[in-house]
Backbone:
């Protein structure tokens, strides 16, 4: 990519981010859950989890996708999740127990920049609207961690707000808001496909969508053997 426009930085600390998501966890689904649902569902469809697979969700939030991952992997599969927020973990765990599958998922409070899993552990990793929350220098760190814990030939599906070479009015307005009110709006459009390529993944497909005028890319990538 030649002379790409810079992406905004994330200036609030992880402690501030954790506190913010803890506070909004109880009502996050009302705020963003419905608007994000179709993009998350499309990402899950593209990732196409198979029976018996070992799957990790990075940034599981309120657990919307965990129940679907459990259903796709079946009784012989295993689902894991990592999230920074204790509030989100509590809501997700409650959702799983209400669905009768609370013991089918192993949730972990942790940082995606330091995944607490062994090398080559997972057949697939799914993550939606999470990568763009990390500050620019940490994006390759998170992706490198995903690459590390994936098995050779494993699949990575990232659903993310995406920065394009040309930005429309809504993108410019959103980026201005994020830049000037960073402690309240931490996510922003990023070069998601290029970031994944730069780590050494093979890009399998890129599905371009739009959410309220903001580009959203669903990138399916493969860890090289």
Residues:
């Amino acid at each position: 990519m030649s002379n790409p426009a810079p992406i905004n930085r994330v200036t609030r600390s992880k402690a501030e981010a954790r506190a913010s998501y803890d506070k909004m966890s109880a009502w996050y689904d009302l705020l963003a859950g419905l608007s994000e649902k179709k993009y998350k569902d499309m990402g899950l469809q593209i990732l196409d989890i198979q029976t018996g697979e070992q799957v990790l969700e990075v940034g599981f939030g309120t657990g919307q996708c965990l129940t679907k991952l459990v259903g796709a992997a079946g009784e012989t599969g295993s689902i894991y999740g990592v999230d920074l927020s204790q509030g989100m973990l509590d809501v997700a765990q409650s959702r799983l127990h209400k669905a009768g599958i609370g013991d089918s998922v192993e949730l972990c409070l942790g940082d995606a920049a330091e995944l607490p899993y062994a090398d080559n552990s997972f057949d697939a990793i799914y993550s939606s609207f999470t990568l763009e929350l990390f500050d620019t220098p940490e994006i390759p760190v998170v992706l490198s961690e995903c690459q590390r814990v994936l098995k050779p030939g494993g699949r990575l599906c990232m659903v993310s707000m995406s920065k394009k070479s040309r930005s429309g009015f809504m993108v410019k307005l959103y980026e201005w808001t994020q830049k000037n009110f960073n402690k309240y709006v931490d996510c922003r459009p990023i070069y998601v496909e290029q970031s994944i390529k730069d780590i050494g993944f093979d890009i399998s497909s890129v599905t371009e969508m739009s959410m309220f005028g903001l580009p959203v890319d669903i990138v399916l990538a493969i860890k090289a053997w």
Q: What stands out?
A: The longest helix spans residues 28-47. The longest strand covers residues 150-161. The mean pLDDT is 93.
